[in-house]
Write a structure and sequence with these properties.
Blueprint: H1 4-12, H2 27-34, E1 57-61, E2 64-68, H3 77-86
Antiparallel strand pairs: 1-2
Length: about 90
């Protein structure tokens, strides 16, 4: 499992403004190159846990998102997907 920092680095990489990012070849750089500069990804602003009534929510750090849900993997993909979307 990757940390939020590792995920942000592999998606946004160097020259993105992400703290500590040093990955020169990343998702952002490759889409930017393939689209001839017409498609890029930028990290969104920082956001602390936005909790719902059920204790679910999400954190955003350096553009990477951690989603907190109370769903068990035993409940299946559809239930997990729905709860992540609602968080």
């Amino acid at each position: 499992t990757r940390t939020m920092e590792e995920l942000a680095n592999s998606v946004f990489g160097a020259d993105s403004g992400v703290t500590g990012a040093d990955d020169e070849v990343n998702l952002r750089s490759q889409y930017l190159a393939c689209s001839h500069g017409k498609l890029t990804f930028a990290p969104t602003s920082e956001r602390g846990l936005a909790a719902s009534y059920y204790g679910e929510g999400s954190d955003i750090s350096n553009g990477a998102v951690t989603v907190h849900v109370n769903t068990s993997i035993a409940e299946g993909d559809d239930a997990m997907r729905n709860d992540i979307t609602d968080a």
